[in-house]
Design brief:
Blueprint (H helix, E strand, L loop, with lengths): L1 E12 L9 E9 L2 E7 H7 E16 L1 E6 L15 H16 L2 H17 L2 E6 L4 H11 L2 E4 L1 E3 L10 H14 L6 E2 L2 E3 L7 H14 L3 E5 L3 H11 L3 H7 L7 E5 L5 H10 L2 E4 L1 H6 L7 H6 L3 E4 L12 H16 L7 H7 L2 H6 L17 E5 L11 H7 L6 E6 L2 E5 L2 E2 L4 H15 L1
Bound molecules: zinc ion (ZN).
The site of zinc ion (ZN) has 5 residues, from loops.
Length: 436
Amino acid sequence: MNTVDTLIHARWVIPVTDGDPVLDHHSIAVHDGRIVAILPTEQARAKYQGHIENEYHSHAIIPGLINAHTHASMSLFRGIADDLPLMDWLNNHIWPAEQQWVNEEFIHDGSELAIAEMLRSGTTCFNDMYFFPNITARVARDAGIRACVGLIVIDFPTVWANNADEYIEKGLDLRDKFRSDALIHTPFAPHAPYTVSDEPLKRLRVLSDEMDLPVHIHLHETMAEVELAVNSTGMRPLKRLEELGLISPNLVAVHMTQLNDDEIKLLAEAGSHVVHCPESNLKLASGYCPVQKLIDAGINVALGTDGAASNNDHNMIGEMHTAALTGKCVANDASALSASQTLRMATINGAKALGLDSQTGSLEAGKYADMVAIDFNSLELSPVYNPVSHLVYSCGREQVTDVWVAGKHLLKERALTTLDEHKIISKVQAWNDKIE
Ligand SMILES: [Zn+2]
């Protein structure tokens, strides 16, 4: 008999591995934060003994969801400006509100709110881009969630830095501080081609090549962005990034609603990644990312919610639902974006985009135990012929009961174990009163 830290017995284990298996009555043995084995429950009971042993009789255990594009602390701007197109929304509402309110305390409280919301909807890793990434990193580490805290770069001055060089220096400093932290990763995050000029982009390209770090950037979000770039530079933004040498396996391009066939070919050949944010794109009427076309071309497509000011939530279960339905509509094909394909986008594909697929993104021996339990014992999820179908087409985030990151139980029967829900709500209420 082998003793492990945690032994979990589940009705279904959905590991999101090759062939998309659904394992009936399986168990997961976890030790030192990592998955040791996944095996039939009968065999697990004979082979392993857990310091903690939990039964999930009516649950599916899935890999933790990976939200591949967020601006976490914008959660404090949830619902502040709706029903507007991107540039009006940014120029006349979001940027002025950021100028007035964003400071270290705002980032701290907003990050906590977002992380609490993410954990309660089954997200175990998020890829962020915002000011004061040092604070978001600290909040994430204290909460125990895995985070890619983007080293943001913009040309113009903000509360975080005064110019592109200072953004980069502060980012590299932050990277050094969290280098030995297994939960915190630090990709580069230049905001967008229209807010970052050639010189800093060239510098990021060199740094990203040297350090093998992802470059997370908003790209081809709207037709207006592309038209504006063509008018001012004579090139589409993707072409400009190609000339700067940024189209590579490290590119994590967010949105991509405007793509022609040559550009799809370019991304596929380079091994670049795309993050699809369907709800943000729908809400801002930005356009549609041709997801099935990208997948057919061999491009890795991950899924993200974007910030809570344009979505307006961090609910990856809802995002899967929207992605699958709009993906079919855009492809004019009901077989496009199948349930299992969509679940891959929300898990292993996110891990691949962030360079973390050897650590997380699927349930396999050797990987971190980043896992989510979803309870299927409800009227809304009955009957169950195919649990993967339910995850994408029927499930709500309320059905997430338990979440682990690196084996640590962060959500226990819907209660947060490292964050104080009531304290968070009262701090958010204070911001609500102030901003109002
Ligand atoms: Zn965004």
